[in-house]
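pasting for ref
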Amino acid sequence: RAYKLHLLTEDNLPAYVTTSYGDSKALARTLGIEIPATEEWTRGIWTAEEDNHKLSMNEYGKIMSITNSREHAAGRTSQLRAGMEVQLDHVIQLFTYVAWQELSTNIAHKNDGELFGPIGHELLSNQIAADEARHHWVYVSVLKELAKQFPDDTVRTAHAVLATPFMPGTKGIPNYAREAMKIHKSNIFSTEHAFQAAKTVIQKLGYLSDSPNTDGMSGEGVAALEQLRAIYTEVPVPRRGKPAAFVLGQTITAKELGIQRKDYAASVGMTL
């Protein structure tokens, strides 16, 4: 379930690219500037890497009989037709959302990969999760610079986006709520994971420090900051245990799964 849902969100890349690059370029046009670095990143790096995620997950999914069903094909059509349901009104909102969303995706792929054999584990937990972590680093770095130049706009936007964040797919993926609940209960990606990802972004912006810098913030900005601090200084009750490990439908222990990975890796010269 997690693998198929994660792939459907990766599949909708064209809509995300159109939105993210279109928003950035529209703002640049109003300011009379060019943004070649943004274009290179969006089209030449981020798009290429995310497309690799979609292609590799789809091919591995077919081999493992995960994604070769009529139901999954219908889900792809539905998701692609629905487009991107996140309404992004300005560039700060865009970078705030993707800073959180990429870190959330990193967590989800990493945890999902723990349930697979050596190839699936390498694909999800190592390769794809590492890409998503780097994407998060890029976006949160831009967001930190925006917070320096536009402190009031950034803190108010962070509150609007991160007070109640949500993953993409709610509009286009069939039975999204049911699937998301199953994944939450499995502890692959739970509401606690989403909370921690948002808290990490807020911490990197310096909003949870003992004495956060409020220079340049309006009264509404300071109020937004205090509300974020109230939400994310609380510690959520962690879910106990780890996801059950399944290989071809047979439940095995984490130790047994680790032995299988090492044995296979040794036989094909793979370094885990």
